[in-house]
Automatic annotation (TrEMBL):
It comes from the Bacteria. Residues 29-218 form the Metallo-beta-lactamase domain. PANTHER family: HYDROLASE, METALLO-BETA-LACTAMASE SUPERFAMILY (PTHR43041), METALLO-BETA-LACTAMASE DOMAIN-CONTAINING PROTEIN (PTHR43041:SF1). Gene3D superfamilies: Ribonuclease Z/Hydroxyacylglutathione hydrolase-like. SMART domains: Lactamase_B. It comes from Shewanella woodyi (strain ATCC 51908 / MS32). This is Beta-lactamase domain protein. It holds the Pfam family ODP.
Length: 246
């Protein structure tokens, strides 16, 4: 698994994890992100149970394990949070921030020690030392309860499944050519995103944010003008493909 510094501010930094060459062939490739402050850290969408060992090995290269105090799950999918039972034994004092609607489902992955912090539909904020992040509503994209994480200081939006692409593990972590990247995103967004109304609501919300890095949970990271290119492309895309094709 690769890990590298993504961006750094005076009070905190973002670290990227992904592109694991040793993952099982039929397991979808995922990206994980960690925000690190002086004394605390927030691990976002920590991954499936099969990623726990490589994630743990890479995290301790960057911070002592006791500094990992907070987890975030954008929604309930197994590639997002099925490792929870193992983190629950490793980080018994941690807090998990996730949509209120999914608590009864996420607890099936195993949760005896970690505290569940249920996010209200309208979103909320989290302060870690001197850093503050916002939990941005992204409902129905693709889960009925879904959130993204925005950091105004570094202008990073962790965008979950929005912006995701399906490609191999041995590619760059950044989009290098937006037009050629479209064909890797189209099916995923048309099939996994069920609602044009929800899509447009999210786009209107996100256009008000100052974003330099848009970091999805699959595929590559968008930077600079590519963020606007993605929003323009996504806005004109008709989603809910399975319904329209039935």
């Amino acid at each position: 698994m690769k890990s590298q510094l993504l961006v750094e501010a005076p009070t905190h930094k973002w670290i990227y994890f992904g592109r694991d060459p040793d993952k099982p062939e039929k397991i979808i490739d995922t990206n994980q992100y960690m925000l690190v402050t002086e004394h605390k850290a927030l691990l976002m969408d920590p991954g499936g149970v099969e990623l726990f060992a490589p994630m743990l090995a890479n995290i301790v290269k960057h911070i002592p394990l006791e500094q990992l105090t907070h987890l975030f799950a954008s929604h309930q999918d197994p590639d997002i949070i099925s490792s929870l039972g193992l983190w629950d034994q490793t980080l018994p004092e941690a807090k998990l921030y996730s949509p209120w609607i999914w608590e009864g489902f996420i607890r099936h992955f195993g949760m005896s020690n970690i505290t569940y912090e249920a996010l209200p539909d309208e979103g909320s904020r989290l302060i870690l030392d001197q850093a503050e992040v916002q939990f941005i509503p992204a409902h129905y994209l693709h889960a009925s309860g879904n959130f993204h994480v925005y950091d105004p200081a570094t202008r990073v939006l962790m965008s979950g499944d929005v912006g995701a692409a399906l490609e191999g593990p041995n590619v760059s972590i950044f989009v290098d050519d937006f037009e050629s990247h479209i064909k890797k995103m189209s099916f995923f967004h048309q099939r996994w995103m069920p609602s044009n109304a929800a899509k447009n609501d999210w786009i209107a919300r996100v256009r008000k944010l100052d974003i330099e890095y848009m970091c999805p949970q699959h595929g590559r990271i968008f930077k600079g003008e590519q963020v606007g290119q993605f929003l323009d492309w996504f806005e004109q895309l008709e989603v809910g493909q399975a319904i329209s094709n039935s």
